[in-house]
Amino acid sequence: MDHLPVASILIILPLVYALILPLLPNRDKLLHTFSGVGAGLLFVLSVFFWLATAKHNIPVYQYVPWLPQLGINYIVGADALSWVLVLLTTFLVFMSIVASFTSINKRLKLYYSMIFMLTSAILGVFMARDLFVFFLFWELELIPMYLLISIWGGPRREYAALKFVLYTLFGSIFMLAAILGLYFLSKSIFGDGTFDFSRVSQIPHLGLAVGAQILLFLGFFIAFAIKLPMVPFHTWLPDAHVEAPTPVSMLLAGILLKMGAYGMLRLCFGWFPEAAHVLAPYLVLIGMINIIYTAGVAMVQADLKKLIAYSSVSHMGFVLLGLGALNAIGFKGAVFQMISHGLISAGLFMIVGTLYTRTHTRSIAEMGGFGKNLPTVYFFALIIALASLGLPLLAGFPAETLVFYGAFLSHAFQSIPWFGGTHLMLSIQTLTIISAIGVILGAAYLLWMFQRVFMGPIFPKWSDLKDAVPSEAFVLAGLVLPIIIIGFAPNLVAGQFSSEMTAMAAPYNHIEEAHNPVTTQTIASIPRSVIAHKKGESH
Amino acid sequence: MTELIQNIWLIPIYPLIAFAIIVLGRWSKILPQKSGAALVVGSTFLGLVHTLLFLSAWGPHYEPISVSAPWLHAGSLTLSMGYYIDAAGMLMLLIVTSVSLLIQIYTHGYMYHDPGYSRFYAYLALFNFSMLSLVLSSNLFQMYVFWEMVGVSSYLLIGFWFTRPSAAAAATKAFLMNRIGDFGLLTGILVLLYFTWNWWPGPVLSFTDMSGAAQVALHAAGPVGFTIMALLIFMGPVAKSAQIPLHTWLPDAMEGPTPISALIHAATMVAAGVFLIARMYPVFTISPVAMTVIAWVGGITAFVAATIAITQVDIKKALAYSTMSQLGYMVMAMGIGAYAAGLFHLMTHAFFKAMLFLCSGSVIHGCHDEQDMRKMGGLWKHMPITAATYLVGTIAITGVLPFSGFWSKDEIIGASISQPLLFAIGVVTAGLTAFYMFRTYFMTFHGEYRGHSHPHESPKVMWIPLVALAIPSALIGFALSGQLGLPSFEHFVHYGVSLVENGPNFAVMGLSMSFAIGGYVLAWLMYGSPKLISPERLKTTFSPLYELLWNKWYFDNAYFWIAKNVYLPFAALSAWFDRTIIDGIVGLTASTVNASGGALRTLQNGRVQSYLMIFFGAILTLAIVLMWIV
Questions:
Q1: Which residue in A271, A256, A290, A141 sits closest to A219, CA to CA?
Q2: Closest to A531 (Cα-Cα) out of B214, B83, B226
Q3: Strand B77-85 with B65-74, pairing
Q4: For the residues of A227-269, what is the DSSP string, one character each?
Q5: ipTM computed for the complex
């Protein structure tokens, strides 16, 4: 295991699939099977690699000189944070390919090739350890995504696809500027220009001014914020979702958005702690707006898929809130939310797709009473919707819990510096409480949707709809099973990246140490009898 | 064997296993249609036996036991799950397992012909799992987890007949109202943790350390902050126990099948709010303001709900308002420091209200799904067992000596004597209680039958649980009153040193009982045999008052108005803003770029060189800015 280029195998294998697919005979069944088996294999392989390395503390790292004179090297690797996202990716790709069996029926060769190319690019982003490689994979993802939306999408697919690409490119310009900024800085500091994560990440600690840190942070951040998506850069997402076919929506919500969250955590918050400390108030403020405002927008959507898309945006706000907490609890909550949201949002889009293939409508007003004819879909939709609104013992709850607890226990800021030296008197605690209203709003739009779509009397025109076919039930069960397992035993997931997040939060520890709510003095001021009494009780 | 008995965390696991077997078995079509009952009843029976075995092995000092294991670990915060059992917890365990068992047996008869028979039993098992876990929770976080889980069980069961629009709406409403309370509870927990999280000697938020934590929080937060925190936590019980103003979901919850109304919305889940107050008593008792608010919320709820109950014509809705009113008594008891009395009433109420609901179910079943009391009457002749047990329940709730309500409810009223206004509310509400309960009794069972079907007594499987519940309803109050030479309820269940000295105060009890008798006489005059006073005439005489009560003090209308005229417009405005302003700016940018693109076509020619130029332009800008800063 030590010498196997694990990361590269995982990145290249889907590319190989993408190249084999065009050579296969053009028979639908064969193409479906090949892709399904291939994706299943990729998932199994990633689990196997993960078990064989991470579980034995074997570092996954590969360094291949590429253009050394320019400081460009092919460096890939995986730590715990990468691994959880890699596993999420291979799993969701497998699920969405099985979901494609029923929902995609034209130009399958190109379709599956593009899905695998997309997979490769995403895995590359999660495992790149060199900024140049990272940026390459980041941009590579655009091509398959553009084609997937613009060929297999709905009526306004070209508009949506173009909007998606232009938005991302707009962000990429800033990221590229930040990358090159770091490159030139490394040149002046180290003597040789480099894109290597491990070296570039040192730069902010070598006496770089806070102002410069902030600029670099923002350069990366804009690109990631668009991907996340963060209000007000989110309007590409509802359009993309509405036009994209179901499996592509699952990948878009399930994994693509996580590229933004992942980048924020590793690059912005991981590398520029001082900038993060300055900017955290604004990020938390926007995170709160993400949660509350888009929940309101979701509430009144007439289009089921748009409702789910806005709910997805709303839930990604928790990632911002968790990151802005600047402590291990919040970071952990943010990562947990990436995983939970990945499973749950993919599940919600699968539900929408299952209904769409039967009714060919996404209008909530035309739906109703599906629970009667589609009991399997009904129960899975129920579980996924409950998970999404943060019901305990399902995957969404531990993520939200960690984010809320992390943010509320944080001392990242007491007020938000505003124009002209004024301050907005909003502490992170206040913003957390306002964000927590999101648990009410989330329940409101999800359950109201559920009531209108699945409950009540069935419309006569839908009275002969058939329940989920095996492949659909497989996908739904496949997504719901981990949602339940993670919900019951969240430490199974949280334990994987625990020490990693503690280490990532280490540069921020001084914030907490400066404000300790229970100082020795407060404890001393409590009557001894109370403590003695308590100790006596707890024996 | 003793080890098995010691592991009381297994008690909630039995129904969870039953739930999993039913869900998987029915989905894969391996299990036959009617197998749910045996599994679920079996699991509950096992739980009851386990509880009793544990109880017998637990003595003689009944020391609280607390065990925790980490559940979710992050940084310096570890959230745990485990179990904690003390007298109050044991009381709840006994109530939940015994009442559940009887109701699950009854369900077999009530739901026999329903196509969702096994789904119903699966939900019942899920509820039992959640409720028992809540009762055994070792810390506040765990309690929050199962607090939500009982909420979702309630949601599923209210919306059990989901094809009915009214049931679907009631389910959503119940969940959302409870979510508002949960929001308060969640933020209350966060505030508590904020001030104490470095302090906890054991697992954070554990009930064993709560009194020390309350002191720490009080010192760190100051009295105002501490009171706000206590009131936020209290929001949870306000919603769960249907206290004003978050009560409107409970009457609507009657859309669920009647066994659910008996189990969840009368005997157990709604009492969880009172139980949470009991668990968090170390926090509430050191905040006088919070205690006063709790007492008044309870008192007002008791009174308002009783006034609404007197106008209801749906037998289940009348009982629902009665439940709300009795929960008000319990909450009031907690607020005035009568911890034991509140829990005593929780117990007696669980038995007699479960029985009353099951009786109403028997009536509905016997009258072929009729719930309107105006179309009943004279059912005494057709269903004597149901009528007799309903009468026992009515007398018990009214508080007539020596039935159980007399001992528990009147103990609360007696304890409130130091606060004259609350005392007055308690006594007047006792009179109203007698009036509305006997009103339902007379309307349902006396006089001539006014419906059009052929009422019949329910099958054995339904009336045996009724009779079984009638025994504690009648006797348990007296048995534990301390008057029989047996140890009293307070001997087992008490909080520290009792804050209020309240042995039975017979003068007070006499007063409230005379009000009760007054209520009974009035009910008899209006709805009993002679019908000396016409309800219709009173309706017209006191028309504005009647309108107020008939419209349930307009709470629903107010909430509906807020949702329709405040929140939905806000949401619509957000959606408009999103489409028109934010996306409009994006579109405008695009078209501006497009227009200037025409002018700059030479630049936008698709050549890599020109893109590189743009990139280098950006870099140059950045470099200049960087140099300027560094």
A1: A271
A2: B214
A3: antiparallel
A4: HTT-TTS-THHHHHHHHS-HHHHHHIIIIIHHHHHHHIIIIII
A5: 0.91
> For B159-186, what is each residue's pLDDT tens digit?
999 989 999 999 999 999 999 999 999 9
- How many Å separate Cα A254 from the centre of its chain? 6
DSSP 3-state of A443: helix
CA A364 to CA B272: how far, in whole Å? Answer: 36
pLDDT tens digits, one per residue of B32-82: 878 888 899 999 999 999 999 888 888 777 888 888 899 998 878 889 999
pLDDT above 70 coverage of chain A, percent? 95
CB within 8 Å of chain B, chain A residues 143-202:
163, 166, 173-174, 176-178, 180-181, 184-185
φ, ψ dihedrals at B370, nearest 5°: -95, 130
Asked if residue B212 lies in contact with residue A531, where contact means CB atoms within 8 angstroms, the answer is: yes
Please give the biggest Cα pair distance in chain B.
Answer: 103
If we measure between CA atoms, which residue out of A143, A125, A123 comes closest to residue A133? A125
Q: Tell me the pLDDT band of B599, cut-offs 50, 70 and 90.
A: low
For residue A458, give both structure tokens: 């069935």
- The answer to whether B618 contacts A177, with C-beta atoms less than 8 Å apart, is yes
Q: What is the DSSP letter of A4?
A: S
Residues whose CB falls within 8 Å of the CB of residue B412, separated by 6 or more in sequence, listed in order: B329, B330, B332, B333, B338, B341, B342, B345, B426
Instruction: Report the pLDDT value the prediction gives residue B502, as an integer from 0 to 100.
Output: 54
Element (H, E) at B83: strand B77-85
Q: Is A230 on the interface with B (CB under 8 A)?
A: no
The C-alpha angle A410, A413, A416, rounded to 5 degrees, equals 145
Paired residues of B77 in beta bridges: B74
For B372, the token pair is 């309107």
Tokens of B74: 């992050």
Number of neighbouring beta carbons within 10 Å of residue A85? 26
Task: Using an 8 Å CB-CB cutoff, list chain A residues near B568.
Answer: 299-300
Distance (Å, rounded) from C-alpha A68 to C-alpha A72? Answer: 5
Q: In this structure, what are the phi and psi dihedrals at residue B456, rounded to the nearest 5 degrees?
A: -145, 155
B28 touches chain A (CB under 8 A): no
- Nearest-CA distance B110 → chain A (Å): 22
Whether residues A538 and B171 touch (CB distance < 8 A) is answered with: no
In order, the DSSP letters of A137-174 are: HHHHTHHHHHHHHHHHS-TTHHHHHHHHHHHHHHHHHH
Write out residues 609-628 of B within 8 Å (CB-CB) of A.
614-615, 618-619, 621-623, 625-626
| Residue B538 scores a pLDDT above 90 | no
- Kindly state the average pLDDT of the residues B325-347: 91
Q: Is B165 on the interface with A (CB under 8 A)?
A: yes
In this prediction the pTM is 0.91
Q: Cβ contacts (< 8 Å) between B208 and chain A: which residues?
A: 537-538
B574/A297 CB distance under 8 A: yes
Confidence of residue A135 (pLDDT cuts 50, 70, 90): very high
Q: Considering only CB atoms, which chain A residues are within 8 Å of B219?
A: 522, 525-526
Query: B600 or A97: whose pLDDT is higher?
Result: A97
User: Which of the two residues, A267 and B490, has the higher pLDDT score?
Assistant: A267
- Between CA A161 and CA A165 the distance in angstroms is 6
Spatial distance between the Cα atoms of B292 and A29, rounded to a whole number of angstroms: 71
Residue of B nearest to A376 (CA): B27
Q: How far apart are CA B159 and CA A451, in angstroms?
A: 9
Comparing B190-199, B531-540, B578-587, the range with the smallest average pLDDT is: B531-540
Query: pLDDT tens digit string along B181-196?
Result: 999 999 999 999 998 8
Query: In this predicted structure, what is the pLDDT of residue A322?
Result: 94
| Binary contact (B571, A215; C-beta < 8 A) | no
From chain A, the residues in CB contact with B175 under 8 A are: 443, 447
